[in-house]
Design brief:
It is a single chain. This protein is an alpha/beta fold. The chain has a domain at 8-199 and 270-278: Nucleotidyltransferase, domain 5 (2-Layer Sandwich). The protein has helices spanning 32-48, 61-73, 100-118, 138-155, 166-170, 184-201, 203-212, 234-252; strands at residues 8-15, 22-31, 79-86, 126-131, 172-178, 257-258, 266-267, 274-278. Strand 1 (8-15) and strand 2 form a beta hairpin. It is globular. It starts with 7 loop residues before the first strand and ends in a 15-residue tail after the last strand.
Length: 293
């Protein structure tokens, strides 16, 4: 991972991009040298726990908390940004022929643009390492990045002369598809992407679980009923403990992370190094792409 051609690395993974109501993408970013050290540390943690890989789909509370704890212990040299979207919002609901594959690429673009252009110095030179995903529409993603570059150039045309290439504008050295088993920080992205979508999907279950454990919460935030669908599974109980740990540590670090009011993780100040960003339609005509368009 150490290379003179880039100064920073971003590791990306997704959760439920093509199923369920809530979907998410996470981006873990750090300076290249720090990322190399973090990678080695996480590989050592895996080895000590007799694991080859941490995966959200198979996570237990112990592994998830250990990985999240590692993140909090290495602030401020690492940041995590998670973009979450709801397919029942006005951008997507009841849209005939909705193209989730292209929409996912656009959400990828929004996350990359936001983090690369707003959360790190403009001088950063990026290697993007994304978990191998056959369904990602990489052409759509590159077109989105290129289109935003063109808009920015139009706005800046009186400030400089000469067009910027895609790589120059975003300062991207390479977008590389990688194996999460070989790139340990992709596993951290997988954990937080999973937390992002899951915290909204199972909000009522989590609140009911808190009530049963004596947590004082506003009962108006729950559905005030316990159906079989609301009963947590063993997998839910493991994940609830990870949510509880991340929320508690975020409060301790004053990250301004909302949970109850937003019915799932949402960061109120995106400058914080843990940023759960819930995408909302930007205007009445903000619609997801449709197939064949």
């Amino acid at each position: 991972m150490q290379n003179s051609h880039y100064s920073h690395i971003a590791f990306a993974d997704e959760s439920n991009w093509n199923k369920g109501q809530f979907r998410s993408i996470a981006l873990v970013t750090a300076e290249a040298e720090n990322a190399r050290n973090f990678h080695m540390d996480i590989r050592d943690i895996l080895k000590s726990r007799n694991r080859t890989e941490f995966k959200w789909q198979k996570v237990n509370s112990s592994d998830g908390v250990v990985l999240a704890k590692y993140y909090f212990e290495h602030l401020p040299f690492i940041r995590v940004d998670v973009l979450i979207w709801d397919i029942y919002d006005s951008r997507r609901k009841n849209l005939p022929g909705r193209d989730d594959k292209s929409d996912f690429a656009r959400m990828y673009y929004h996350l990359l643009y936001n983090v690369l252009k707003s959360r790190w110095p403009n001088s950063a030179r990026w290697l993007i390492c994304a978990d191998k995903q056959k369904e990602v529409d990489w052409l759509t993603l590159e077109n989105c990045l290129d289109w935003k570059k063109w808009i920015e150039e139009e706005a800046l045309q009186f400030k400089f002369s000469g067009a910027l290439s895609l790589g120059e504008f975003y300062n991207i050295y390479e977008i590389r598809q990688v194996s999460s088993e070989q790139y340990a920080l992709v596993q951290l992205a997988d954990l937080f992407a999973g937390l992002g979508a899951y915290s909204h999907t199972t909000f009522n279950k989590y609140i009911n679980w808190e009530i049963e454990h004596g947590e004082q919460v506003n009962l108006k935030l729950t559905n005030n009923s316990t159906t079989p669908q609301d009963m947590p599974s063993k997998n839910d109980l493991d994940r609830f403990k990870i949510i509880e740990y991340v929320y508690t540590e975020s409060k301790r670090n004053r990250f301004q992370l909302s949970f109850r009011k937003s019915k799932g993780f949402k960061t109120n100040n995106p400058e914080n190094p843990l940023n759960f960003w819930f995408y909302t339609p930007q205007h009445p005509n903000d619609r997801a792409p449709v197939k064949g368009y």
